[in-house]
Design brief:
Oligomer: single chain
Strand content: 15-25%
Radius of gyration: 26 Å
Structural class: alpha/beta
Largest sheet: 7 strands, mixed
Order of helices and strands: HEHEHEEEHEEEHEHEEEEHH
Shape: globular
């Protein structure tokens, strides 16, 4: 009899323990199911464009077209006109907090500066290049966007030569200089939570239709100064964009990039120079190259300004 009571007690204990284990597993599975069915965070796209102190046709054209596109995509696209990275941060975070959203795509509309002989993009007067992108004090405001970015975020450096990897040849007193756009891209991806970064080897155009998913960002500038042998490495890479995947930790095959109406970055099916007509256009432009079309005084002026900055610091 005592043995029966003992075995009955053991059975009840085992039964309760089994029920507890089964309940725990079921609860865990329910949580997993809830997590997997959880809707992904809302994504918002941004174009960050400079606040102008004096009229500049390129950013003005971009801003005008972005304002027009925003009329049709008010829920998922914003134009942010910023005078500094701090100004940009305040405006973007205000929107993201209000919408409880993440960054889907962010495009930095900026001039490139060939005379500085390095890849860069600017927010206001702040220059982000292969050196400053690794300066934690300099990037303090830009890095605060990281919490709103992830491996699904796409970043566009919208400046000419922003992703250039070639070496500019020596000229007069200036030694050969590598552009280091790849280092800038890796640094920016790391800063923004291993996002995917796109940047161009060549010119970035700002004519009509730049937000219609066509080839408007690629092309040939018409101004005389660009038709100089000093620009030869730039012309050879027309319409070519490098892509760095933070998720994979490597560069993908070069592509040609466009923008959709909602500000999202779109990769074209064929590269710009894959079209025969564009190859012919390039060859025609190269025949117009003439030494002296580019005024080398711009290099000396830039060199003097940078030396003055270093001296004042």
């Amino acid at each position: 009899m005592n043995n029966f009571k003992m075995s009955n007690r053991c059975f009840r204990s085992f039964y309760l323990l089994a029920c507890l284990i089964l309940f725990t597993i079921a609860s865990s599975n329910a949580l997993d199911t809830n997590d997997s069915n959880k809707e992904p965070a809302r994504r918002i796209n941004f174009v960050v464009s400079p606040k102008q102190k004096k009229f500049d046709g390129a950013p003005f054209s971009f801003q005008l077209q972005a304002i027009l596109m925003r009329k049709y995509h008010k829920k998922d696209f914003y134009l942010v006109i910023a005078g500094s990275s701090e100004d940009m941060l305040k405006k973007i975070t205000r929107i993201l907090k209000r919408k409880n959203a993440m960054i889907g795509n962010i495009w930095f509309d900026s001039h490139g500066h060939f005379q500085r002989r390095r890849s860069l993009f600017e927010i206001g007067e702040e220059e982000f290049n292969y050196k400053t992108i690794h300066d934690s004090a300099f990037t303090v405001h830009l890095k605060k966007l990281a919490v709103y970015c992830d491996i699904n975020t796409n970043v566009g450096i919208g400046s000419c030569y922003g992703g250039a990897t070639y070496t500019l040849p020596a000229v007069e007193i200036f030694p050969a200089q590598r552009m280091n756009g790849d280092s800038l891209m890796i640094g920016l991806s790391t800063l923004l939570s291993n996002s995917t970064v796109y940047a161009c080897e060549s010119f970035v155009m700002t004519g009509l239709g730049i937000m219609t998913a066509n080839y408007s960002l690629a092309g040939c500038p018409g101004r005389k100064k660009f038709k100089d042998p000093i620009y030869a490495p730039v012309w050879e890479k027309l319409g070519e964009w490098n892509c760095y995947s933070g998720k994979k930790g490597k560069f993908e095959e070069p592509v040609t990039v466009s923008l959709n109406q909602d500000g999202s970055i779109y990769v074209k099916g064929k590269k710009y120079l894959a079209f025969e007509k564009n190859k012919k256009k390039l060859e025609k432009k190269k025949q117009q190259f003439k030494k002296g079309n580019y005024n080398l005084s711009a290099l000396y002026q830039e060199n003097e300004e940078e030396n003055n900055k270093q001296y004042s610091n």
